[in-house]
TrEMBL record:
Positions of the DUF8128 domain: 98-418
Superkingdom, natural source: Bacteria
Keywords per UniProt: Membrane, Transmembrane, Transmembrane helix
The name this protein goes by in its record: DUF8128 domain-containing protein
Presence of the UniProt keyword Membrane in the record: yes
TM annotation in the entry: 20-43
Organism phylogeny: Bacteria, Candidatus Uhriibacteriota
C-alpha cells in the first residue's frame, strides 16, 4: 500500500503571503496549541488571584517580643522556635487548593529600628497566635509578648514623596539553595566557647539611627515539605562523583515517543547496512563507585555542610531590607552600607552568602532613572507592607531552622545595644503566705485554713 503526501496546497499558500501560511496551518490543527495556551494562561491567572484573595481575607496579628536583659538562652533556643513552626504546614485537598485558593500561610519575623529604638516583632495569622506564643514561652518563660499596631502605616505609599525617601532591596543566595550560609555554631570559638554574636553588629548599626530614620528588616518564612532536599542530595552526589539521577523535563517527556520511534528506525537502518548501533554505557556509569575517598578536605567539608543543611526542617524564605527616612536626615552611608555590611558576616566563601537582588533594589542607571527608582520604591514598600511571599524577586530562597536562627535571634546578655527593647523585671508567682480576704478580715493563707478546720471531739481519749 503506497502512502502519498501532497504538499502542493502548502506550497501554493506559501507562495502568496505569510498570513496565508498562518491561516493554512491554523485551520488544519494549528488552533489546538493556541487554545491550550489561552486556557493555561487563564487558569494560572485565576489560580493566582484566588490564592491572593485567600491570604488577603485572613486576620493577622503583630506581636512585639521582649526578652529579659540577662538573656542566658543560646541561639539554639530560637532554632527550636522555628522548628515548632513547621507544624503549621498544610497543603490542603484539591477542592481547597483549586476552588477556594487555599495556600500555605506565612510568618514574618522582623527587626525594626524606629529612630534608634529597636524592637523584635512577629506578624502571624491570628489563628496561629497561640502557636507562636507557646513556641516562644517554651524557650523564654520570662518573655513579654504584646500585640501592637502595624508600624508600616507611618510612611507614604506613593513615591516620589515630598517628605520621605526610601531605599530597599531583597536578599538572595548567590548559589543554589543546597549550599548553607555561615551559621551560629561557626561563630563560637572552639577553645574558649565564647559566642561572637553576629546580631551585635546589626543591632549596633540600627541603634545609631537618628530621629526620623528607620531601618526595617523582614524575614517572611513559609513552611514547606521535604521536596526541596532532593536538590541537596543530587548536588552532594555530584560532588562525590556518584551517579546523579536525571529528571526529564516536560519537553523531554513529550518528545520521548518520537525519540523511541526514530531510535528504533535508525537501529534497523544501521543493521541493514552492517553497522553496529552505538549505545551509551549508562549501566556501567551507574555501577561506578563514588570518589569520596579522593576528595580534598575542603570538598569533603562542603559535602558535609550540604548534608547537614538538608537534615533539618526548611522554610521558603524572603528577606527584605528597607531604609526609610525624612529627606533632611536621609543618609545611605549610615543606613544602607552598615546594614548590608552586617549581613556579610554570614558569608562562607566555599558555601553560600547573601547578596542584594539587583532587579528589585531601588537603584537605576542611565535612562529615566527617577521614574524607574520611584516604581521600585512603590513595589518594595507594598511587598514589605503586605509581608508577601510572592511579590518581589523570584521565588525567594530556602533556609533551614539553623540558618533562620542565625539571622534572627534575640541578643545574648553580652550584646550592649542600648535601645533594644527588653523586659525590665522578672515575673514570678505570688508568695504562698499572701493574705487573702475572709469576711471582713485579711488573714494569712495558713491561718484561714486553720479556722475552717473542724475542732477535735471533747471525749477524745488521752
Amino acid at each position: 500500500m503506497d502512502i502519498t503526501i501532497d504538499f502542493a496546497p502548502f506550497f501554493d499558500a506559501a507562495a502568496n503571503s505569510p498570513l496565508t501560511v498562518g491561516w493554512f496551518l491554523f485551520i488544519r490543527g494549528g488552533w489546538i496549541p493556541v487554545i491550550v495556551v489561552i486556557l493555561s494562561t487563564f487558569w494560572h491567572v485565576r489560580l493566582r488571584n484566588i490564592r491572593a484573595a485567600y491570604l488577603h481575607h485572613l486576620s493577622y496579628t503583630i506581636l512585639a517580643i521582649d526578652v529579659p536583659k540577662l538573656n542566658e538562652q543560646s541561639t539554639r533556643a530560637v532554632e527550636q522556635i522555628f522548628a515548632q513552626l513547621a507544624g503549621a504546614f498544610s497543603s490542603g485537598n484539591l477542592i481547597e487548593r483549586y476552588l477556594h485558593g487555599k495556600n500555605q500561610e506565612s510568618f514574618s519575623f522582623e527587626i525594626v529600628s524606629l529612630g534608634g529604638y529597636i524592637q523584635f516583632l512577629v506578624r502571624t495569622p491570628t489563628h496561629f497566635r497561640d502557636l507562636i506564643e507557646a513556641a516562644i514561652y517554651a524557650q523564654y518563660p520570662d518573655a513579654e509578648i504584646t500585640e501592637v499596631e502595624d508600624y508600616t502605616g507611618t510612611i507614604p505609599r506613593q513615591y516620589p514623596s515630598d517628605e520621605f525617601d526610601l531605599w530597599g532591596t531583597e536578599l538572595k543566595l548567590n548559589r543554589k539553595n543546597a549550599y548553607p550560609i555561615r551559621t551560629y555554631p561557626q561563630f563560637e570559638h572552639t577553645l574558649t566557647q565564647k559566642f561572637a554574636d553576629p546580631m551585635a553588629a546589626l543591632l549596633e548599626i540600627m541603634s545609631h539611627m537618628h530621629p526620623g530614620e528607620n531601618i526595617w528588616i523582614q524575614w517572611v518564612v513559609t513552611p514547606i515539605g521535604d521536596g526541596w532536599k532532593e536538590e541537596g542530595i543530587q548536588v552532594a552526589k555530584k560532588l562525590i562523583g556518584a551517579h546523579v539521577k536525571h529528571s526529564p523535563t516536560l519537553t523531554e517527556r513529550a518528545l520521548q515517543p518520537v525519540r523511541s520511534v526514530t531510535g528504533g528506525a535508525s537501529e534497523v537502518l544501521l543493521h541493514g547496512l552492517g553497522i553496529a548501533p552505538f549505545h551509551e554505557e549508562g549501566a556501567a556509569a551507574k555501577d561506578m563507585p563514588s570518589q569520596i575517598q579522593y576528595l580534598s578536605p575542603g570538598e569533603r567539608a562542603i559535602v558535609e555542610a550540604i548534608e547537614a543543611k538538608i537534615s533539618k526542617v526548611g522554610f521558603h524564605t524572603k528577606c527584605r531590607i528597607v531604609y526609610v527616612a525624612k529627606k533632611e536626615v536621609f543618609d545611605k552611608a549610615r543606613g544602607v552600607v552598615g546594614a548590608l555590611g552586617a549581613f556579610s558576616q554570614f558569608s562562607a566563601l566555599n558555601l553560600n552568602s547573601f547578596e542584594p537582588a539587583g532587579k528589585v533594589t531601588t537603584k537605576a542607571n542611565y535612562f529615566f532613572t527617577t521614574k524607574r527608582i520611584a516604581k521600585r520604591q512603590r513595589k518594595i514598600a507594598r511587598a514589605f507592607r503586605l509581608r508577601s511571599k510572592e511579590l518581589g524577586w523570584g521565588h525567594g530562597m530556602i533556609l533551614n531552622t539553623e540558618e533562620l536562627a542565625t539571622v534572627w535571634h534575640f541578643p545574648i546578655a553580652e550584646v550592649k545595644a542600648p535601645l533594644v527593647k527588653m523586659t525590665e523585671a522578672k515575673k514570678g508567682e505570688p508568695p504562698s503566705e499572701l493574705p487573702i480576704e475572709t469576711g471582713t478580715l485579711l488573714l494569712p493563707y495558713e491561718t484561714a485554713q486553720d479556722e475552717i478546720k473542724a475542732a477535735p471531739p471533747e471525749n477524745l481519749p488521752l
